[in-house]
Amino acid sequence: MQNEIWLNRWKEKNIGFHEDEVNSLLIKHFKTMNLSWGNTIFIPLCGKTLDISWFLALGHKVVGVELSEIAVKELFEELHILPKITKINNMIRYSSLDIDIFVGDVFDLDTEMTGKIDIIYDRAALVALPKDIRIQYTQHLRKLSNNAPQLLFSCEYDQNIMKPTPYSIEQNEIEEHYLDHYKIELLESQEIEGGLKGKYPANDTVWVLK
Q1: pLDDT tens digits for 96-143?
Q2: Topology of 2-209 in CATH?
Q3: Which helix (H) or strand (E) is 20 found in, with range?
Q4: In the chain, where are the structural domains located?
Q5: Per DSSP, which regions of the chain are E strands?
């Protein structure tokens, strides 16, 4: 059911979550990850984010996963890249030099598909998932990446005043998922100008997990 909701949002172009520029907090804090040229960044639930183009321009490799093939097709069109398309198990793989995007459920990915992951960039995945799935998701992510460092974006607000998504995820929950495996540091908490969805008081938060 959860998957159908997101697939329908892409079909209906109901994608207010898609940013029309590279995320400013990413640009500000990415240097904390200390990556080298050619390192691989894994982006779960990547959509067609412009952050991918920014990573590629910096000389990094990108591996992503996205439910909607519509989003992935549009991503490659906007990158002006003609991908090679292959079927791997339950996934469809769109690939070119330094970029591999898998169409399908993140839980169907395995380490043979992704290869070595140097960092995870979770900009919009954890906040898109209900609590029971977040538990499975964080366990799967750790296994998939061998506990690779993460740059994790979240948001905090009064969950009672708005129906999700995005879900409000506070520090105590992030620690529940990750504290046994990572050192967790809050890099920034920034008030969302104008409020979440233009009306609800909320903060964007940026975490580094190493």
Answers
A1: 999 999 999 999 999 999 999 999 999 989 999 999 999 999 999 999
A2: Rossmann fold (3.40.50)
A3: none
A4: 2-209
A5: 40-44, 61-66, 84-88, 91-96, 99-103, 119-122, 150-156, 184-191, 203-209
Q: Residue 52 pLDDT more than 80?
A: yes
d(CA 141, CA 148): 9
pLDDT, tens digit, 9 for 90 and up, residues 133-173: 999 999 999 999 999 999 999 999 998 888 778 999 999 99
Helix (H) / strand (E) element for 52: namely helix 51-57
Q: State pTM to two decimals.
A: 0.94
Terminal Cα-to-Cα distance of the chain (whole angstroms): 33
Between the CA atoms of 201, 154, 159 and 105, what dihedral angle is there, to the nearest 10 degrees?
140
48 and 207 Cβ atoms separated by less than 8 Å:
no
Render 127-158 in DSSP notation, one character per residue: GGS-HHHHHHHHHHHHHHHTS--EEEEEEE--
Dist CA 2 CA 15 (whole Å):
15
* Contact present, 143 and 180 (Cβ < 8 Å): no
- 154: tokens are 């979240």
| β pairing state of 119-122 and 99-103 | unpaired
**Single-letter residue type at 177:** H
